[in-house]
Every structure is written in structure tokens, then in C-alpha cells.
Amino acid sequence: MSSFRSRQRSQAGRHFIRPAAEHEASKPEAPAERRAPVQREAAARPPRELDLFAPCPRGLEGVLARELAALGAERVETADGGVGFVGDMTLMMRANLELRTASRVLLRLAHGRYRDERDIYALALNVDWPRWFDVSRTIKVKTDGHGSGLRSLDFVSLKVKDAVCDRFRRAQDARPSVDTRYPDVRIHVYLDAEWATVYLDTSGEPLFKRGWRDETGEAPLRENLAAGVLLLAGYDGSQPLLDPMMGSGTLLIEAADIALNRAPGRLREFGFTELRSYDAVAWEGVRARARQAEKPVAPLPIHGSDRAVQMLVKTRHNLGRVGLAGAVTLAQRDVLDARPFAESGLIVCNPPYGVRLDEQDALAELYPQLGSWLKQHFAGWTANFFTGDLRMPKLMRLTPARKIPLYNGALDCRLFVLPMVAGSNR
Ligand SMILES: C[S@@+](CC[C@H](N)C(=O)[O-])C[C@H]1O[C@@H](n2cnc3c(N)ncnc32)[C@H](O)[C@@H]1O
């Protein structure tokens, strides 16, 4: 896997069909107002080949690359925290609708070396923004950096916003407004120590927002991370699946979507519909094909439980929101009272991980009991625990077959894979 920086370097040679000035590094330019106005392009025909990048939770790059290859993406290349690929507008729409593990789908518009904010301004000014969206659209610019020596990433965002507005002013004597809360168009800037990349966000809201969850302020597992955990656990939609600490049911819902071949983005909207290149007929075709590939909702070998009654209520509510009422079997019970409902299958769960000392003590008491419970009842099953508590297998007195590093935001976590073969685990 290449690092983000080396990937950016290697991508410097990637091109899609568009005027060279838009994607090559440029020298700082003279102030916009002293230069000749740019002619507005009559038609907003998109380039046939788009240079795309899908960020994802760290640790899921390989899974995401396989998802992209299955969609028919070309030049799929993993980096730290995401996957680069090439495809046309249809692929970009399908990626937004169908990828389970991506956080966003970004379109790379400019990439170049920088020394200071002026270079980044010049890079962004070189992009033909009026070609991509109408001046009536509101915008938001966000900058992230890794090793950039610049004082303020917010100041970089401000300079890029200025560049976008200046480019519009030169073309049509008007500029887009900024809306930091609900922008129509999001622009992302990524900096490493030497290189700046300017992306247009084709997703809008991040893709873990599937469009069904009530925004309650609590922090369940992000949907794309839950899907990634399931895919890393080898879940293919056919095996019996149990989450005995289901919380709000995120893993159960993602599993059911995999089992029913339902596109994770089917209930939400996307940022690309705000772009000039948006083709409503093509988009409806993409959505219709995804709907045709769905299996009908029926009872599934997916079971979930939690000891907290309010979690049962919440999961039942969430299942109803996604049209899965009755498809998943639910119960209120302690994890230690859960029993297998098939000869073999997968336990996939995200146990609580304590931050406070007393929580950690309680977990240290639970883990040996979990180990005994697995050995006693779940021979033939494989348990997959996603946790930030790295003590877990040792305290369960079990040896994981795999310890897969995975990040939940900045939190260093593991997916511990424990195949329960009768009599083989101590
Ligand atoms: C980290 S949360 C799971 C979050 C879930 N993956 C989601 O996305 O909403 C852990 C869950 O384990 C449950 N839990 C804790 N101890 C339990 C036990 N002994 N038996 C059953 N459930 C338990 C908690 O009620 C909580 O809902």
C-alpha cells in the first residue's frame, strides 16, 4: 500500500480529458482583476474519464478497492485512507450509490506543489469552476492537512474560496455565496508537506449517512465502518449472523443490505445532482438498475440482541425505517444468554469499550466470561469482535486467528477474528 503522499506523487501523471491548465501545477498568477476575463463555456460536457478518490476509514482500503473493482473502476490504487480510481460519470454515480465502505467520492480537479497559500490560490484559480457548477450554487471549502507547515488550514480554505469566487467573477461578473452549514457544492483541499490537491465532492453529505438514521446525537458505529467490519469478517449475505450487543442495530442493517443486495445509498441524495454535468435520466437509469438487482425482503438468518431495552426499541425503529421490520430476529437479553440458531455462522459485534477506569474494570470481568460462553456454545461459529480495547482476546483467554487493524476515526481498533473449533481453543 502506498502512502497518501507517494500516491499523490504517482497520481501527478494521471490525466483526464480536459484543458491542461486545469490539472497541472502552476506558478502563482497575477491578481485576478488585472487579467483578461475568461470566456464562459457554452456547454458543460463532462470529461469522459474522471480522476476519482474515495476516502474510507483506515484499514478498509483493501475492501474498498475490491468493491471498486467489482463496479468496473479502472486504475484502482490503494493509498493510506482511501482508494484512487478512474471512471466515467456513470461509474461516479454508481460509486456514490453502491459503495458500502467509502466515506465520500471525490473528483480531483487540481494537483500541484505549493510553498505557501498563494500557490494554493493559484492552483484553485486555474480550475474552470463555472464549467462544473452554476454561480447560483452555494459553496463550502474545507482543508485537511498532513504535515503541512502552513499556520492555518482555515486560511487555506479562505484563499481557495477566494480563488473560486475570483474565477467566477472573471467569467461572469458574479460569484457564488458561501453556506457553511448546507452548501450545494463542497470543495475539499488536501495538503501534505509539498503537494496540494483540490477536489470537488460528488457525495455531499458523507456516505456513512445512508439517509435513514434519526440524528439523535448519540454515536453509533458509522455505517461504512460497520459494512467494512462485516466484509472483513467474510460476511457475504448467506451465512447466519448474530450480533449479541447490537446497540442501535447498525451491523444488522448493513448485513441485511448485503444479504438483499440493496444499494446503501438508495434512501439519500448526493452532491453530484448540483453539478452542471448532472444527467437526471442517466441517474434514474443507475438507480433503476440497482433496484432491479435487489432481492425481495424476507425473513433473514440475521439475529440481534442487547441487554438494554431501549436499544431493542431503537433497533426495531431503525429496522422499520429501512423497510426491514420482521426480516431480522430481535431479542432483549444479556450476551451470555445468547445461543446459536444454526450449526455454524458468524458472530459480528462491537462490544462497549470503556474509557473510564471503572468501565475498563467491568469489561475485564466480562471478557473471561465471553471466552467461556464462546467455547461452551459456539463451536462451528466464528466470532468477530470489533473493539478499541486491545486487551480483549488475552482476557478472553482465546487466540485470535487474525487481528485486523482498523481505525474508528482516530481510535486505533482491532477486528479480532476467533474461529471456534470444538475443543481446539484453550
Ligand atoms: C458499542 S455499543 C454497540 C453499538 C452498535 N454497534 C451500534 O452501531 O449502535 C455496545 C452495546 O453493547 C450492549 N451491552 C453491553 N453489555 C452487554 C451485555 N452484557 N449483554 C448484552 N449487551 C450488552 C450495550 O447496551 C450497547 O448497546
From TrEMBL:
Domain THUMP, chain residue ranges per copy: 91-202
Record has Transport as a keyword: no
Entries under InterPro entries matching the protein: DNA_methylase_N6_adenine_CS, RlmKL-like_Mtase, RlmL_1st, SAM-dependent_MTases_sf, THUMP_dom
Gene Ontology molecular functions: RNA binding; rRNA (guanine-N2-)-methyltransferase activity; rRNA (guanine-N7-)-methyltransferase activity
Biased amino acid composition, Polar residues: 1-11
Residue ranges, compositional bias (Basic and acidic residues): 20-48
Region called Disordered, residue ranges: 1-48
Family annotation (SMART domains): THUMP
Cited Gene3D superfamilies: 3.30.2130.30, Vaccinia Virus protein VP39 (3.40.50.150)
Keywords (A to Z) from UniProt: Methyltransferase, RNA-binding, Transferase
Keyword Cell wall biogenesis/degradation among record annotations: no
PANTHER family, sorted: RIBOSOMAL RNA LARGE SUBUNIT METHYLTRANSFERASE K/L, RIBOSOMAL RNA LARGE SUBUNIT METHYLTRANSFERASE K_L
Annotated protein name in UniProt: Class I SAM-dependent RNA methyltransferase
Highest classification ranks of the organism: Bacteria, Pseudomonadati, Pseudomonadota, Betaproteobacteria, Neisseriales
